Amino acid sequence: MEQYITFFTNHPVLSIVWVVLAIMLMHSWYKSRFSAIRQVNPQQLTLLINRDDAQVLDMRGKKDFTASRIAGAEMMNVDKAKQNDFGGLEKYKTKPIILVCNTGMTANNIAERMHQQGYEKIHVLSGGMSSWQSAGLPTTTGK
């Protein structure tokens, strides 16, 4: 124990950095563990669609959506979602929803907004569409 005290005394900046990193790590773990929004991998997404009739909402641009998407996915307007305009999605308020974007970052932000608006079962595809494609799972094309 005495060695720790000596280290902290001799290296205060490094000690503060370690403490801050530890707090950030605990906060991140706590937030992900107790969040109402769940991260799912491509296999879990498939199970949610097949077992719970989940709806996939694709948040990528029209060009990307038309070129390649998960079967049954609907296109979601990100600009409207960023303004908390979820018109037309009320029918999914109690149904499982899976948000998909390119990498998962945009989907997480919109998922938080949807949860605040009363959507109950929100999931985000971890890694976005790139993780779906990396897993070699099928996609569909067209409008």
UniProtKB/TrEMBL annotation:
Organism listed in the record: Pseudoalteromonas luteoviolacea CPMOR-1
Domain Rhodanese: 50-141
Keyword Transmembrane belongs to the record: yes
Protein name: Rhodanese domain-containing protein
Annotated TM spans: 12-30
Keywords, comma-separated and alphabetical: Membrane, Transmembrane, Transmembrane helix
PROSITE patterns with a match to the protein in the record: RHODANESE_3
InterPro entries assigned: GlpE_sulfurtransferase, Rhodanese-like_dom, Rhodanese-like_dom_sf
